[in-house]
Specification:
Structural class: mainly alpha
Shape: globular
Strand content: under 5%
Length: 617
């Protein structure tokens, strides 16, 4: 059982003023930006990086290592934040990510770069989870949309901006700036968070779920490594007779089964299974899985298609993805503001998934000679739909769980989405690659060109530069084959989006809470509540002082009228008055809403239950 560290003099440790909230929000956004940007920034810089560091054969580890580390630590940060508080884990995450970014930029070998990328992931996973959980701690669900909207927009922006910045640094500066960019942002975020993130710490008396941590790490590693099998092994596909692949899949399934068993027996489980009995949490997690599988799969192949079909460079192809970023940003922010205004959220995931499904269906009409205006409209619609969903489901999850489990629930939702992204990208890549090989073989056969002739026509060497250097007739075959393989592959994502839409229809509208997580746990007070409490105490002190002064005057007059022989009685009365004064002052300082009648016989004790009544009010 977790207990908050008692604040000094019984006062709440944090007063959540608007200024404090916005300063904290600035640090959170900076941290989230770094972590989410690094999931996509290396895509366009990868050929240059692996070529310079001699890591072409194992280049997949640059992406896999980061995603694997992020996925493993997500649930850990969520649980540890609930147990011990989020201030120090967040500061450690920023520091870890910033230092690893600097080290990655100075790496002189491929192995060192992979290692530091994994360290980056250990920090990045915490930044993404703790940012969302801290917002739930300091902002009520009723007002959280205005903050969660920009956070959702930031995820979409980073997914598109990453390839753009990676291409820009590679073309015009140095690929190492992909990492050095994080240093000033990280230092600024660390300074702001150190000063403003005054969150309480906790002590936990429950035993840490070590078996759950180990088994979840093993299961997560197996899922991510199996999903990215072709990327980090260099194999061209999934050979199910490969003993290594079979052992990994069997081991992963065993680890998942044992993890579920361990969570049913743990005193304080890492991922409480009772969360999945919560209707909103279960449905929102399913939607997150769908979003992860579809969004990242689509984003992974569209920039390369643009490079091949338009002949644009890596930077230009990133710019051509800006309409999707605009769509995500506009609808994410607009839906967040609308939720604050109307107090309802259910309609937005429903509308968003319907729009995103329509966008995916539209993308099945891609052709090699498509106009950029039409393509921009397609990806804008897809982005607009996703922007209505991503952070709305996180808000729904946080609003539906116990305030003491906000971090655990938030991390679980994001963890499931991350796993969906890894699996979805792998499946989509397999489907797309098999169709591309068939299309190229048929196209070259019909044109009388031998695949692989000259070394530039094999599917494994189809880089944008190689395609642009081909004769026009051969280039058109490649571009058309690519488009004809990519467009129909989107049909495999459509059922996923439809399933997400149906899940959204099943969600119930739960009234948004008017209380921030820390306030609900008694760890903070809202700005208005703090001011009201201070004024109430001041008024109580004034009233108590006036009543005590009046009582003392009456006793003095009674003593004076009793004659010289009553001095002892007067002394007793004065003593009783003093005791009553002390008792009255104590009650006023304790926050009693009214002054009790003076007790008889000179006793200074408060009436039974008086303090509880005052505290309750």
């Amino acid at each position: 059982m977790s207990t908050a560290t008692a604040p000094a003099q019984g006062q709440p440790p944090v007063v959540l003023t608007k200024r404090t909230v916005w300063l904290i929000f600035t640090a959170l956004m900076a941290g989230m930006f770094m972590a989410s940007l690094d999931q996509s920034i290396l895509g366009t810089a990868m050929p240059t990086i692996v070529g310079e560091l001699n890591g072409v054969e194992h280049q997949g580890w640059l992406i896999t290592g980061y995603i694997l580390a992020v996925a493993i630590v997500m649930p850990l940060y969520g649980k540890f934040g609930d147990l011990w508080g989020r201030r120090w884990p967040f500061l450690v995450s920023i520091a870890l990510f910033t230092l690893a970014s600097a080290a990655s930029g100075f790496a002189t070998s491929f192995e060192a770069l992979v290692f530091f990328r994994a360290i980056q992931g250990l920090g990045g996973g915490g930044l993404m989870i703790l940012s969302q959980a801290i917002i739930a701690d300091i902002v009520p669900a009723r007002e959280r949309g205005k903050y969660m909207g920009p956070m959702g927009a930031l995820f979409g922006i980073s997914a598109v901006l990453g390839p753009l910045l990676g291409g820009f640094f590679t073309d015009h500066m140095d690929w190492r700036w992909c990492f050095w960019l994080n240093i000033p942002i990280g230092l600024a975020a660390l300074a702001i968070a150190w000063k403003t993130l005054k969150l309480p710490s906790h002590r936990s008396t429950k035993k840490l779920d070590v078996p759950g941590i180990i088994l979840l790490a093993l299961g997560t590693s197996g899922i991510v490594l199996a999903a990215s099998w072709t990327s980090w092994t260099g194999n061209t596909g999934y050979d199910w007779s490969d003993p290594g692949l079979l052992a990994m899949v069997i081991g992963t399934l065993a680890a998942i089964g044992l993890f579920i068993l361990a969570e049913t027996r743990a005193a304080d489980p890492l991922l409480p299974l009772h969360l999945f009995k919560n209707r909103t949490f279960a449905l929102a997690s399913g939607i997150g899985l769908v979003i992860g599988m579809s969004m990242f799969a689509a984003l992974g192949f569209l920039p390369t298609f643009l490079q091949m079909s338009t002949g644009s460079g890596v930077t230009q192809s990133g710019l051509l993805m800006l309409p999707m970023m605009v769509g995500v940003m506009l609808t994410s922010i607009a839906s967040g503001m609308a939720i604050v205004k109307i107090g309802r959220y259910r309609m937005f995931p429903i509308a968003g998934l319907a729009i995103a499904t329509a966008g995916l269906i539209w993308l099945t009409r891609l052709t090699g000679d498509i106009s950029m205006v039409l393509f921009s409209a397609m990806i804008f619609v897809l982005g607009a739909g996703l922007g209505l969903v991503m952070q709305t489901i996180v808000l729904a999850v946080q609003n539906s769980v116990d305030p003491r489990e906000i971090g655990t629930a938030t991390s679980a939702n994001n963890f499931i989405r991350e796993i969906g992204a890894a699996v979805g990208t792998a499946l989509f890549s397999t489907i797309f690659t098999s169709r591309l090989v068939d299309n190229l073989t048929d196209g070259f056969t019909q044109a009388g060109v031998a695949p692989g002739a000259g070394g530039d026509l094999g599917v494994d060497s189809l880089t944008p530069d190689a395609v642009n250097a081909m004769p026009d007739a051969v280039k058109q075959i490649v571009v058309d084959s690519y488009a004809d393989a990519l467009a129909p592959s989107f049909w495999y994502l459509v059922p996923l989006m439809v399933a997400g839409f149906l899940l959204a229809l099943l969600m119930r509208e739960v009234k948004l809470s008017d209380t921030a997580g820390m306030v609900a746990r008694g760890e903070a007070v809202a700005d208005g509540d703090a001011t009201t409490a201070e004024r109430r105490v001041e008024a109580e002190v004034v009233v108590a002082a006036e009543a005590l002064t009046a009582g003392a005057d009456q006793e003095v007059r009674a003593a004076a009228g009793s004659g010289s022989g009553s001095g002892a009685v007067s002394g007793a009365g004065a003593g009783g008055g003093a005791e009553r004064a002390g008792g009255g002052t104590e009650r006023a300082g304790g926050g009693t809403a009214h002054v009790e009648a003076a007790p008889e016989a000179g006793t200074g004790s408060a009436p039974e239950g008086g303090s509880e009544g005052g505290a309750g009010r």
